Amino acid sequence: MLKLYKVSKRKDLDISTFTAGILLRLKKGKIQNARLAFGGVGPVVLRLPKTEEFLQGKPMLLGIFHEAGKLARDEISPISDVRASSDYRLQLAENILLKFFHE
């Protein structure tokens, strides 16, 4: 399952504050493979290898995604700029994983 996310002030024709691409492959209710890429949280789009590794082999449970969100926060170091503060982007990194779970 692949989901792509864009956070910006306007829906179209706006520079993104934060982007995310999340790809999970499931087998028998467990995450077989996880790939996460976040944009707007560093100088280039970043993969989150520690969070990916944490998710692999885990069941699709809300608590797992809460923990993954906390790990994701630790893997990025966004700056504050005119689009968003560093704290806002850190919170987005955590929340986007919860959104993925609920969708």
Q: Give the N-to-C terminal Cα separation.
A: 11 Å
Which outline best applies? globular
* Number of domains as seen in the coordinates: 1
What is the CATH topology assignment?
Enolase-like, domain 1
Number of strands: 4
Mind sketching the topology for me?
Blueprint lengths: L1 E6 L10 E10 L2 E10 L6 E2 L1 H7 L6 H14 L10 H17 L1
Helix pairs in contact: 1-2, 2-3
Structural account:
- The protein is an alpha+beta fold and 103 residues long.
- It contains 3 helices and 4 strands, in the order ββββααα.
- The protein has one domain: Enolase-like, domain 1.
- A 4-stranded antiparallel sheet has the order 1-2-3-4.
- The mean pLDDT is 94.
